[in-house]
Amino acid sequence: MSSPAFQFYVRDWIMSTRTLSPEARGVHIDLLAYSWDYDGIPSDFRAISSLVLLTPTKFRRVWMELSDRWPEAENGLLRNPRQERQRAELLALREKRAAAGRARAAAAAAANGASK
């Protein structure tokens, strides 16, 4: 199950996008949102330009600023490495909490069984 939200670290965003044009920053946050929800963005240039509602000509200029932030993953989708680290941390935390919940439930079941 995918989380409906991701952490947005304001200082990291400001510092990592300072050299981008305002248009590239807007496209980048849209791509991050899409990538979070769909586990990556398509590698097809026209498909990406369609996602952000820009003509391929206009998108080409913006993509020149962003393409190094979106390397291709094993499955052919483009993924942002920073976001993927965050996704992995969230999944690890979710599994840790689930394991703790299972352990508590097992302990409670054992205690209930022992008290009978």
Please explain how this structure is put together.
The protein is mainly α and 116 residues long. 66% of the residues lie in helices and 0% in strands. The chain has 5 helices and no strands.
Care to count the β-strands? Answer: 0
* Class per helix and strand makeup: mainly alpha
Q: What's the N-to-C terminus distance?
A: 38 Å
Q: What share of the residues does DSSP label as strand, in percent?
A: under 5%
Helical residues, percent? 55-70%
Poorly predicted tracts of residues: none
How many DSSP H or I helices?
5
The major β-sheet equals: none
Cα shape? elongated
- N-to-C SSE series? HHHHH
How many whole angstroms does the radius of gyration measure? Answer: 20 Å
Mean pLDDT: 92
Name the descriptors.
about 120 residues, mainly alpha, about 65% helix, about 0% strand
Report a brief summary of the structure:
The chain has 116 residues and is an all-alpha fold. 66% of the residues lie in helices and 0% in strands.
Question: What is the topology?
Answer:
Layout: H1 10-17, H2 22-38, H3 45-51, H4 56-66, H5 81-114
Helix pairs in contact: 2-4
